[in-house]
Design brief:
538 residues; alpha/beta; Alpha-Beta Plaits; 20 helices; globular; iron-sulfur; 4Fe-4S; NADH dehydrogenase activity; iron; FMN
Length: 538
């Protein structure tokens, strides 16, 4: 069983280290040690810096993979056109349970990240630098690094630099969420899509990228594009940081040159010789089967070509002894919980998709499979951020990758394997868990509560259906169509709110003692017949 990843897991390197240089000497490179290892760094002009990023084909390492030189030029052009100083933001909000590469960099090599960020700030004429983090360890390390450079609160520099600490949540890492929090709002997407390069922090053009991107820029600026290009593939030079977890003996962050076989990376971490599947790119990524993973190499282009995804650099194999659909259900339920709850695709679509997956696993048949596919299609390209799109991609990849297991569950009595919980997750509130059926693993399933309608009091106001659409639907007469129903754990707070706000006091919540019994089939939640399909529009 896979335990929760620590903030700083074991770090390995294949070939010569670049980002991880000095890690064999000290646990954390303070400023003097950083300069001894990497040497000084001279400022560069804006166009010179953009040409460097273009020559080394630097792309964002946070998942989207947008060309960094285009982002840099867009910010510069917008700042010149508007006559305002831009802002530089380092996104260290690494909140996916399977990712630790940025966290490792911030904890162990914070000055390498600051080198890249300060290069950009100097080139753009920015006077504000913000580093977004979500963990106590990363906050401490980055604040210490700013103090070592005399940049804390801008006391000894024209540049004002600070650390922005946000809650540990999947949507916190979205660029729009981080910008909104820096401006004093909640760390959730604002509901409208705007380009940070045009209007970001305080309405100013903002250069925002993740921690590894700025560190890679600092390496390229020191050694030059020729030496940088001597490592890795011709069209994707340099190294990448990967977080390898799941069914492995040694979860780790590993720096590898692009072009290294994926199977070699898995062997280093102690993955099964023939994994049942390998999740590439993390929980917004895609599954590869064992044969495909054995032929793939580590690069964005290679993984895309074989149906995988580099994404944020998370690699998670699973063994033959666990149910892959059950493992994916746990992730789907967690993704539904991580919704900001402010748009339909997240608020309704992702919980419905998780229930659809549970319905498949509990004998829902072909109708449940079609319903799940329909929900996944419906949530894409309709959300306030990329969370619904990434979650839908994960679900669609699961259905495509594990066809034999899917057939066993849809057409038979299941695959017969338990769910071992090898994919790391967080419980609500940011507490990590690797325990199957614990915390987040059951949040999408039935709770120990049932909600009841007292027909002698109900007056058909319909407020319950507005607050708790997962449970209540109104019939043609305007009254709820059910007298009692199980409450999914993710909706317990809403159920309580529905009880409190019912104008006729017609609702009540009671404990469901049946939920205390262990669910059948490998710790999967058992839904009442038709319940999941009705929530999916069936």
């Amino acid at each position: 069983m896979n335990e929760a990843l620590p903030d700083v897991p074991e770090v390995r390197v294949v070939g010569l280290p670049q980002l991880t240089s000095g890690f064999d000497l000290v646990e954390r490179l303070d400023l003097p040690m950083h300069l001894k290892v990497h040497g000084p760094l001279e400022p560069m002009g804006g166009e010179q810096l953009a040409r460097l990023a273009e020559r080394v084909a630097l792309r964002g390492r946070g998942g989207a993979g947008f060309p960094f030189h285009k982002k840099l030029r867009a910010v510069a052009e917008s700042a010149i056109k508007r006559g305002v100083r831009p802002v530089v933001v380092v996104n260290g909000s690494e909140d996916e349970p399977a990712c630790r590469k940025d966290t490792v960099l911030i904890n162990r090599a914070p000055h390498l990240i600051l080198d890249g960020a300060l290069l950009c700030a100097e080139a753009l004429g920015a006077r504000t630098l913000v580093v977004g983090v979500t963990r106590e360890s990363t906050q401490r390390s980055m604040e210490a690094a700013l103090a070592e450079r005399g940049l804390n609160n801008g006391r000894r520099s024209a540049l004002r630099a600070r650390v922005q600490r946000n809650p540990v949540r999947m949507v916190t890492g979205a660029a729009a969420s981080l910008i909104r929090s820096i401006d004093g709002g909640p760390a959730i997407p604002p509901g409208r899509k705007t380009s940070a390069s045009r209007s970001g922090v305080g309405g100013a053009p903002t250069l925002l990228s993740n921690a590894e991107t700025f560190a890679q820029l600092a390496i390229a600026a020191r050694i030059g594009p020729e030496r940088y290009g001597n490592t890795g593939l011709y069209d994707e030079p340099g190294t990448v940081l990967l977080t390898v977890s799941g069914a492995v003996a040694r979860p780790m962050v590993i720096e590898v040159p692009t072009g290294v076989p994926l199977r070699y990376v898995l062997q280093l971490a102690g993955a099964p010789p023939v994994p049942q599947g390998v999740l590439t790119g993390g929980y917004h990524g895609k599954w590869l089967d064992a044969a495909t993973a054995g032929e793939a190499v580590v690069s964005r282009g290679s993984l895309d070509a074989v149906g995988g995804s580099l994404g944020a650099g998370a690699i998670l194999p699973i063994g033959q002894e666990t149910c892959p659909l059950g493992e994916s259900l746990r992730v789907a339920q967690w993704l539904a919980e991580e919704s900001a709850g402010q748009c339909g695709p997240c608020y309704l679509g992702l919980p419905a998709a998780a229930r659809g997956m549970a319905d498949i696993l509990n004998g829902g048949g072909p109708a449940a499979l079609e319903a799940l596919k329909q929900v996944a299609r419906n949530v894409k390209r309709r959300g306030a951020c990329s969370h619904p799109d990434g979650s839908a991609m994960f679900l669609e990849s699961t259905v495509k990758a594990f066809t034999d297991d899917l057939a066993a569950h849809v057409l038979g009595n299941g695959c017969g394997r338990p769910v071992q919980g090898v994919l790391p997750l967080y419980e609500g509130g940011g507490t990590p868990t690797g325990v199957p059926g614990g915390g987040a693993a059951r949040e999408g399933g039935p709770s120990r509560q049932r909600i009841h309608v007292d027909w002698t009091l109900c007056r058909g106001h319909g407020l319950c259906a507005d607050i708790l659409p997962e449970v209540f639907q109104l019939g043609a007469d305007g009254f709820p169509t059910v007298a009692q129903a199980e409450v999914p754990r993710y909706a317990e707070a809403k159920a309580l709110r529905a009880v409190r706000r019912c104008p006729a006091l017609a609702l009540r919540i009671e404990e469901d003692n049946r939920a205390a019994q262990p669910p059948a089939r490998g710790d999967l939640p058992v839904l009442s017949p038709g319940r999941g399909r009705r929530a999916l529009g069936r």
